[in-house]
Amino acid sequence: MIQSSSSQDSDRPFVSVRFTTFVTGTLCLPFLGLISCIFISVFFHFEDATKTHCQVPNYLPSISASIGLTPERYIWRFCIGLHSAPRFLMAVAYFTFYHGRLTNNCLVELLSYLNLTCAFSENIGLLLLTYVSSNETHSIHKKGFVVFTGSALIHMLITCLLWRAIKMYSMSHELLKSYWWKKRLCVSSVILCAAASGFYWKHNKFCEPGIYTLFALCEYLMVFCNMAFHLTAFWDFGHTDVTLAAPQELKLI
């Protein structure tokens, strides 16, 4: 349950956490997990993590390589497993947020439903690429990565469109700051995705030294932009709480 911190309710709260704490903790999990996996891969499994199909020099592991080794895969799976359920809750919270501010508009209604679908598919794609590593079933892992990346970019674009519609009415200083960052992180993600795709194609076509390193670097930055985009919820729901509660009276029928 997500509610305003000032609202009074007849439910008895079991746990009540500020949404700012909730979203920060949720997004710290994949951030710290990815940093840990990359660090371990570079310093302990460098040869295995950076090898390429054409044996050209490479100096950074791709995300798929860094989360496909042991113990890196278990660290990543643990972090994403804890992170996934709150992400679904955040998607529903945003869906409610849009419906509370944008009404009587068929296009906006359609975009809000599409945005919710993309948020769910982004999370499902992330779970798929996490629990099916590239070393196990490469084709399924690749499909999970495509679903995650495509859904994430579409989700960002639709979100910016919805926030542009919200701006036409009124926005607080915090919401304006959130919108400012959303736009820039969305543009950055699209540019980085295009650059990563170009480097990936060039590596597979020409096998030039260092090109896969540039692909991996763009991949890191794109994922960090995605995390930062979701972290803007810090401003969007700054005055709300996440509460686990039960009714005062429980009746057995």
TrEMBL record:
GO terms under cellular component: endoplasmic reticulum membrane; Golgi membrane
Q: Which InterPro entries match?
A: CWH43_N, PGAP2
CWH43-like N-terminal domain location:
20-239
Superkingdom assignment: Eukaryota
TM spans (from-to) = 21-46, 110-132, 144-164, 185-203, 209-229
Keywords of the record: Golgi apparatus, GPI-anchor biosynthesis, Membrane, Transmembrane, Transmembrane helix
Q: Give the location in the cell.
A: Golgi apparatus membrane
GO BP annotations, alphabetical order: GPI anchor biosynthetic process
The yes or no answer to whether the keyword Membrane is present is yes
Membrane topology summary: Multi-pass membrane protein
**Principal cellular location given in the protein's record:** Golgi
Protein's UniProt keywords contain Ligase? no
A Pfam family cross-referenced in the UniProt record is Frag1
Q: Family assignment?
A: Belongs to the PGAP2 family.
* Biological role: Involved in the fatty acid remodeling steps of GPI-anchor maturation where the unsaturated acyl chain at sn-2 of inositol phosphate is replaced by a saturated stearoyl chain. May catalyze the second step of the fatty acid remodeling, by reacylating a lyso-GPI intermediate at sn-2 of inositol phosphate by a saturated chain. The fatty acid remodeling steps is critical for the integration of GPI-APs into lipid rafts.
Q: What is this protein called?
A: Acyltransferase PGAP2
Q: Which organism is it from?
A: Conger conger (Conger eel)
